[in-house]
Amino acid sequence: MKFQQVGLRHPRVRQLRTVQRRGSAGDHRLFVAEGGWAHDRLLDAGTDIEVFLWCPEAAHAAGVHVCGVKIAARARRAYHIAPKVLAQLSERDRPDGLISLARLPPWDAATVPVRWPGLVLVADAIEMPGNLGALLRTLDACGGDCLVLTNRRTRLGHPTVFRGSRGMNLRVPVLEFDDPDAAVHWLAERRFTIYLATLGAAAIPYRTIDFGERTAIVVGNEHCGVSPSWRRHGFTEITIPMLGAADSLNVTVSASILLYEARARAAGW
Q: How far apart are CA 118 and CA 127, in angstroms?
């Protein structure tokens, strides 16, 4: 397959670099995917691919070349880039020639399916993209329905979110609410019981909680915890006992423990 060869000054290459570095003000759902595994995830999820940049000279494995052919057939625009251009764009030590500008799926709060029993994770003011990605990966692993974002401080299209989620940000529905009260209303309408994961003295050990059939667990900022806008509603606060010298767990570890506990209770494990 032959494509126009382009360099770093080409408008589409410049667009990809901009999204890669700081996101796109015009479309926050754009993100950059790189490498064979990432493009396999794009194909599996039927993701919209805006721009595909291919350096066949770097595709040493036969499977990568086959993947490149499939991506080129799906992409709206496909271009050939030289190894030197790939080296400027790649964030990997050994790039394999595949890099794309793709689009996250749109999710509508009014139509996102919620099962019975249901399980939702709320990520409030999460700052680190690696943590956000890991939360999505964990939510998928335990069969959660969706991730709700409030007080968002990192973009969903950050490359680290895609890598950290192992592509699960293409499959797990993500709903964003500018106002936490709107998220509370959405959860209440769907009959979710809301729990705040905190370290407060009044928090109840999570093993003593009788999780219901629809559970929403709120985890907060890596430094400050759950924001006051959630606390003022008076939801039950739950905690994971700390038995050593450390005063807290990483937010993704905490979310994993609580989500699996809620899932086990609902499923009767």
A: 26
Domains annotated on the chain, with CATH: 11-103 (3.30.1330.30), 118-267 (3.40.1280.10)
Share of the chain above pLDDT 70, in %: 99
Angle subtended by helix axes 251-267 and 129-141, to nearest 10: 10
Residue 1 predicted with pLDDT over 70: no
Beta-bridge mates of residue 53? 79, 99
17-to-34, 39, 51, 125, 214 alpha-carbon distances in Å: 12, 18, 12, 26, 42
Q: What is the DSSP string of 203-250?
A: PEEGGG----SEEEEEE-BTTTBS-HHHHTT-PEEEE----SS-S---
Whole-angstrom distance, CA of residue 46 vs CA of residue 29: 15
> Which residues lie closer than 8 Å to 101 by C-beta, 6 or more apart?
12, 15, 16, 19, 30, 31, 32, 49, 50, 51
Q: CA distances (Å), 15 to each of 49, 101, 133, in order?
A: 14, 9, 23
pLDDT of residue 251: 93
Question: Is 0.85 topped by the overall pTM?
Answer: yes
- 130-138: average pLDDT: 96
Whole-angstrom CA distances from 194 to 119, 185, 237, 238, 262 are: 10, 11, 9, 10, 12
